[in-house]
Amino acid sequence: MFRATINADILKDSMEAISTLVDEARFRFDKDGISTRAVDSANVAMITLELGVDAFESYECTDGEICLDMLKLVDILGMADKSDKIQLELNTETHKLMIRMGGLSYVLSLLDPSSMRKEPKTPNLELPAKVVLNGKDMRLAVKAAEKVSDHMALGVDEDIFFMEAQGDTDQVRLQRAKDELIDLTASGPARSLFSLDFLSDITKVVNKVNEVTIHLGKDYPIKIDFEIADGKGKVGYLLAPRIESY
């Protein structure tokens, strides 16, 4: 059993954060709220989301899980106004999710769990550098980098955080000193190269966020974390690096 009511803007932001990387997702729900963990089809990026019970207007469930087509779900939620309250109700007999909003009702069929990929394990990474900045700064650097290259390096050098891209003839760099950031702590230098295809999708989401936390190492994956729903939910991205050839 699962029945809940939630503000449209919270649910839309949450689902768009997932759909930017994956087309299908397995959601677990229990007394603490809902969560998901999934990887993209190329095994390059992972998304995790936790939406606490306090993010909902009302929430009832018994422990369980459902698998959803994210593209269909986001398309449906796009019909909602920001002020709408969205009602969700699972019909366990028909294996469908009822979605009600603004006088509209949708019945969304669930995906077969056996056809889904297994939920990935979260790797235990100890990354030496931590940077906290405004999401708009990250988005600005990625948009600038797209004009010159298809990949981008992020790193920390002493008290400087930088994002840079170099093409065949042009290059672009955004850097922020420690006093220009919300926070910067590092036990040593860090630098890794990443695909702009993935960074572009991720930064479209973080562009709305005031505080984004980035964890970096040298030729290690990047962790990007931020809160949603006024701190009642959390989103995390883990992106594998491109190995540079020298």
Any chance you could write out the topology, listing elements then pairs?
Blueprint (H helix, E strand, L loop, with lengths): L1 E6 H12 L4 E7 L2 E7 L5 E8 L5 E4 L2 E6 H8 L7 E7 L4 E6 L2 E6 L19 E5 L1 H11 L5 E7 L2 E7 L4 E7 L5 E4 L3 E6 H11 L5 E5 L5 E7 L4 E7 L7
Antiparallel strand pairs: 1-5, 1-7, 2-3, 2-6, 3-4, 4-18, 7-8, 8-9, 10-14, 10-16, 11-12, 11-15, 12-13, 16-17, 17-18
Helix pairs in contact: 1-2, 3-4
In short:
The chain contains four helices and 18 strands. It is an alpha+beta fold and 246 residues long.
Explain what you see.
- There is one protein chain.
- By secondary structure, this protein is α+β, with helices and mostly antiparallel strands.
- The protein has helices at about 10-20, 70-75, 135-145, 195-205, and strands at about 1-5, 25-30, 35-40, 45-50, 60, 65-70, 85-90, 95-100, 105-110, 130-135, 150-155, 160-165, 170-175, 185, 190-195, 210-215, 220-230, 235-240.
- It folds into two domains: about 1-115, Roll (DNA Polymerase III, Chain A, domain 2), CATH 3.10.150; about 130-240, Proliferating Cell Nuclear Antigen.
- It contains four helices and 18 strands.
- The model has no long low-confidence stretch (mean pLDDT about 95).
Question: Could you name the key traits of this structure?
Answer:
246 residues; alpha+beta; DNA Polymerase III, Chain A, domain 2; 2 domains; 4 helices; 17% helix
SS summary, helix count: 4
Q: N- to C-terminal separation?
A: 56 Å
Outline the biggest β-sheet.
Answer: 9 strands, antiparallel
Number of strands: 18
CATH class division of the largest domain: Alpha Beta
Sheet with most strands: strand arrangement: 6-2-3-4-18-17-16-10-14
Q: What would you say the CATH architecture of the largest domain is?
A: Roll
Low-confidence stretches: none
Mean of residue pLDDT? Answer: 94
Rg, Å, rounded: 19 Å
CATH topology of the largest domain: DNA Polymerase III, Chain A, domain 2
- Element-by-element helix/strand order: EHEEEEEHEEEEHEEEEEHEEE
Molecular shape = elongated
